[in-house]
Amino acid sequence: MDAKELKEIRKKLGLTQAALANLIDVGTRTVQAWEYNDQKVPKTVGEFLKHKLTENILDQKNKSVITMDVSNKDKLTLEEMAIFCLGYQDEYEKIPSVKLFIDFHRNQAKAELLEKHIILNGKKES
């Protein structure tokens, strides 16, 4: 994958450089270096993004519009939005950026649990 293709796919996925960096656990400057062709884009990153783009396209074809009536509200809290989204959890989790966010945080949680497990097992052996 070249710099131009990386940037195009990132934009099609609706991600900023910082969001992409956070998703794949690299620094924002690394993503910038890839996009400015200062560094080569790793093959695994390219394959991951192409896969996510394909998922995104398929999800867009199956996308239904869900609206929230906020005409009677002056303000909308994040909690109210979250409660609304929980009512449409299946549809909400199909949104590519939400899916990426959830996958990323699940993987982080798994890594933290694994790390704690290793540390605890290491203390038992001492």
TrEMBL record:
Pfam families: HTH_3. The lineage of its organism: Bacteria, Pseudomonadati, Bacteroidota, Flavobacteriia, Flavobacteriales. One of its GO terms (molecular function) is DNA binding. It comes from Aquimarina muelleri. This is HTH cro/C1-type domain-containing protein. Residues 6-35 form the HTH cro/C1-type domain.
